[in-house]
Structures are given as C-alpha cells and as structure tokens.
C-alpha cells in the first residue's frame, strides 16, 4: 500500500482513540538483537521524522479480498475530522462513506480476510495501533487496541498464505525506526517482534508465489534512500537486502490488487521520474517510465501505472496487452489533491476495467472508470464523487 508523509499526518492528529478496554500506555520496547545486527544504512540510534522529500499527500486504501474474482470490496480513508471512514463497493461504484469514529493519524490500512471481514488498522493519536472490523453484513465491531508498541508511521496489513485462515499480519515503524510485525492468528495477536533495520518510508507488503522462505515480502526505504526488501515467514525473516543503488523519493508501490504481487516494484527517483524494477529476475535494474514529473506516490494495477503530475492531474501509463511494456503516460482529465489508488475489476482474467481513486479539490474522494474496451488506451469516463464525509 502507498501512503502520505509522516510529518503531515502527525501534525493533523487530535485526541487518541479509546478502546473498549481502555488505553494501554506501554514503554517503548527494547531493540532486539535483529535490530542491532541490521545493515548499516538501516541502522541508526534515533528515529527522525520521515524525510521531507516524500510526497506529502494522503492516499485512499482499498480493501481487497484476494480470493474473489472482483477483489476490491471497499475503500478506507481518514476524514477531515480525523475519523476513520469506510465506503463499501456497491454496484459499479461505492456506497456513501460511513464514519467509524475515533481520531486517527495518517492513512488507515485495510484488508479482507477469508471469512469476508474487512479489517481496518489505524494509528491513534497516542501512537498505538487499533483494529476495527466491518463484517460482510455491514456490522462494525468497534475499536480494539493492539498493545505493546509505540509506532512512528502508518501501519501496513496483509493476509498471508502461510498462516491459518482468517489471519492478518501487520507491520509498523517502531520508536527506534526499526520495522516491527505482529500477527493475529486464531483470533489473538501473537505480540510484536522486531525485524530490525532503520527505515525512512512507510512499509509496503506483498505476497509471493509460494510459502517457501515466507509468503510475505516487505519493501522499505533505508536511511541511505535505497530500497530494501525482507522476506517474512511465521518463524522469522530473511533480513534486509538492498535493491540496487538507486535512491528513491517516494514510498514503494506494488500491484496492490493482484493476488501475487511481490515481483515488481515502483518508486519515484531523485529526478522525479517513475521507475520500475523487477525483483524476480536476476540481473534486472531500475528502468524509468518517462513522460511525467511525479508529484505523488504511485499506484499500480496489472494493466497500468498511475501518478500525479506537476499540473495536479493523474497520468496513466497503460501496459501493452499485459506483456510488461508500457505505452506512455496519458493525462486523465481533472485536478486531484492526493495520491492515487487504483485497481482492476478482475485481475485474474475476464474484464479488465480500471478504477482510479483520488481526493478532489473539494476534499471529496472520487473514482474514475476506464471500461474494458479491449485496448490499453481507452478513455476514462470522468470522476464520480463518493458521497458522505470529506477526507483528509
């Protein structure tokens, strides 16, 4: 998932979320041996705020059901009042935003488990982690605290294939700048553990083809602004490995709507161009996708790359029949004030209708559809506002 910058999200915080059982104000956990042994660019003594070169924009978060042929089940965002908002898919669009209350910091995280529950994970203004659930019938369970860690960034969540059905694994940046993870299996949180390192971006989680060595792969930016990956299993992790020497100035993007999406990453370079990097094929390097100066984080589907340009419009770069090459950036009419999110209607076959979501100048979230017209360059139909509260 892709996020906005840490500083902007922090200064807009309000009153902390309150769980039904009350808040647990714990001391910062001690650094683990893994953290102490991390590579030099990912190790540091104090956790500064995220670097100012990251895009300072919020990003809507799509909740995906990885077992469904039409995986996007809804979208979550932070309201202008700080509350968590959720809009379920309805027909070809979305139901109105529903406020789930609370006062949150930053972008929420959203996933759908095998039971059909939409799991929403947020950071409270006390810098602790809270979970909320929307059931398939639309019932909201309310906030519960995920105790044990003070976080310094947005939370990332994923439904792994190497855990029991219904499990959710989450990641967060800890008080010393390291990556921490926790997993809810069989209804209970296992507890936070450190993966070490020192990161200067949000965390992006992806899934691999198999569970050998761990089904989940995460991507982060280190203090040297290079991208690092780490493969995570129920029993541990591989450790952080640098992905080439290119320095990036955005959070890392993957094909969020694809069930298997841990093989290609995207990021903004220091020249503000969009770059793609295959992390599956040995010998691959970062390759620029020319044609736009990026001013946002990047969204990717199995058929296109999306980013905001200098004129505040979204630019789409479609793939050429899904063969891995791109046709060039094309302007999508309309001004936006946030980073894009995007998904394909059916990424595993069938129609390839594209959905693009972005915050509008009036603080409304809107979606834009490019119907499956049989060619990668079909037009978008125009932005349609999701009704309900405005978003941050």
Automatic annotation (TrEMBL):
InterPro entries, sorted: PLL-like_beta-prop (IPR058502), TAT_signal (IPR006311)
Domain PLL-like beta propeller: residue ranges: 165-342
UniProt xrefs under Pfam families: DUF8189 (PF26607)
Stretch forming the signal peptide: none
Domain of life: Bacteria
Protein name: PLL-like beta propeller domain-containing protein
């Amino acid at each position: 998932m892709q996020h906005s910058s840490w500083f902007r999200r922090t200064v807009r915080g309000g009153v902390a979320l309150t769980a039904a059982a009350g808040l647990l104000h714990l001391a910062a956990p001690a650094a683990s041996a893994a953290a102490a042994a991390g590579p030099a660019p990912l190790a540091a003594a104090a956790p500064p705020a995220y670097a100012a070169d990251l895009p300072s924009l919020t990003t809507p978060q799509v909740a995906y059901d990885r077992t469904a042929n039409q995986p996007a089940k809804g979208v979550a965002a932070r309201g202008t009042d700080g509350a968590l908002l959720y809009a379920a898919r309805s027909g070809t669009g979305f139901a109105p935003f529903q406020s789930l209350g609370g006062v949150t910091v930053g972008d929420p995280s959203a996933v759908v488990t095998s039971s059909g529950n939409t799991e929403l994970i947020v950071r409270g203004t006390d810098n602790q982690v809270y979970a909320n659930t929307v059931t398939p019938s639309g019932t909201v369970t309310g906030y519960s605290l995920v105790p044990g860690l003070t976080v310094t960034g947005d939370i990332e969540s994923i439904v792994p294939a190497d855990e029991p059905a219904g499990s959710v694994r989450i990641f967060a940046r800890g008080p010393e700048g390291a990556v921490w993870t926790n997993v809810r299996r069989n209804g209970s949180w296992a507890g936070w553990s450190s993966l070490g390192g020192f990161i200067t971006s949000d965390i992006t989680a992806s899934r691999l083809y198999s569970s050998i060595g761990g089904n989940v792969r995460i991507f982060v930016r280190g203090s040297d602004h290079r991208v690092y990956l780490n493969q995570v299993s129920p029993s541990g992790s591989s450790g952080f490995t640098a992905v080439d020497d290119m320095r990036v100035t955005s959070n890392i993007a993957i094909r969020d709507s694809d069930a298997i999406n841990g093989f290609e990453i995207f990021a903004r370079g220091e020249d503000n161009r969009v770059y793609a990097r295959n992390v599956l094929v040995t010998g691959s390097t970062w390759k620029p996708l020319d044609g736009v100066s990026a001013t946002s984080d990047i969204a990717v589907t199995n058929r296109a790359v999306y980013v905001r340009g200098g004129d505040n419009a979204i630019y789409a770069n479609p793939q050429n029949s899904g063969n891995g090459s791109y046709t060039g950036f094309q302007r999508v009419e309309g001004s936006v004030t946030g980073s894009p999110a995007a998904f394909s209607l059916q990424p595993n076959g069938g129609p390839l209708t594209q959905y693009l979501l972005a915050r509008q100048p009036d603080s409304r979230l809107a979606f834009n559809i490019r119907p499956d017209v049989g060619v990668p360059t079909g037009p978008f139909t125009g932005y349609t506002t999701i009704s309900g509260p405005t978003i941050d």
